[in-house]
Design brief:
This protein is mostly helical and 160 residues long. Helix content is 68%, strand content 0%. It is globular and about 40 Å long. Residues 1-6 have low confidence and may be disordered.
């Protein structure tokens, strides 16, 4: 009721996370995730990176890329530190909407902030470059992967 009921707030946050997790695999459920986010904000339940990631991923799956990136920006406004998964999803979203340069800029931010880059991060960036026919950039990312000792695999290899 009054925001001081911490156990109830935690319980609500746990329940909302469970609802989001169940919605993740369903196409078109991004609306439900955003509605739930609105309710959580109204009752002043703080969302962590995991909840934001679920909502961003729902928007990505629903091809609502603008909404996904807006949520990514809201994370910093709410002082929620993006996780590696947050960055990976955002790089992937930029790739899906043809914004390969923004995907690379975000990758650069991750490298400068010493965020833990992994195969998923680079795969998303390579795919973004490939989708924009920027194969030279994609090949350059393989060099960076080798320099940073990030293991490459078939997922990070551009499709031919």
């Amino acid at each position: 009721k009054n925001g001081d009921d911490v156990p109830a707030a935690r319980q609500f946050q746990g329940a909302s996370k469970a609802v989001m997790d169940s919605n993740r695999e369903k196409a078109g459920e991004w609306e439900a995730s955003l509605q739930l986010f609105s309710v959580m904000a109204h009752v002043k339940v703080e969302c962590g990176a995991t909840v934001f990631n679920a909502m961003i991923n729902d928007c990505k799956k629903g091809n609502e890329w603008t909404k996904a990136m807006q949520l990514f920006m809201v994370m910093s406004q709410k002082h929620v530190k993006p996780s590696r998964s947050s960055f990976n999803i955002a790089v992937s979203v930029y790739g899906k909407c043809g914004e390969w340069l923004k995907a690379l800029q975000l990758l650069n931010v991750m490298m400068q902030s010493h965020a833990g880059l992994d195969t998923v991060t680079f795969s998303a960036a390579i795919s973004a470059c490939g989708g924009g026919d920027e194969w030279e950039e994609a090949v350059g990312l393989f060099s960076i992967m080798a320099q940073r000792r990030v293991e490459s695999n078939l997922l990070s290899a551009p499709a031919g």
